[in-house]
């Protein structure tokens, strides 16, 4: 795996640290890697088979969520509406 060193504003570092502390990510590198993957998908770039396998493995390891299907669908609808609003 490759390494990269970046400088961030304190607020950005604090945000990343909070995401890790909240238990969503094992470390800052995992969080940043997830952001890069999300942006690639958003821009329509296809992921490699290895990347898809990694995503599946990570989602299985994250365990079962606590939100209901209704909550998940409501969140999905909110995200779609927010995306539409940004495009308008």
From TrEMBL:
Belongs to the ParD antitoxin family. Gene3D superfamilies: Antitoxin ParD1-like. Keywords: Toxin-antitoxin system. The lineage of its organism: Bacteria, Pseudomonadati, Pseudomonadota, Alphaproteobacteria, Hyphomicrobiales. GO terms for biological process: regulation of DNA-templated transcription. CDD domains: RHH_NikR_HicB-like. This is Addiction module antidote protein, CC2985 family.
């Amino acid at each position: 795996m490759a390494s990269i060193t970046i400088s961030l504003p304190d607020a950005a570092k604090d945000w990343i640290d909070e995401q890790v502390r909240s238990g969503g990510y094992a470390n800052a590198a995992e969080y940043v890697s997830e952001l890069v993957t999300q942006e690639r998908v958003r821009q329509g770039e296809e992921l490699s088979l290895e990347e898809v396998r990694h995503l599946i493995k990570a989602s299985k390891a994250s365990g079962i969520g606590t939100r209901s299907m209704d909550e998940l669908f409501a969140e999905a609808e909110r995200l779609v509406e927010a995306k539409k609003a940004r495009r308008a």
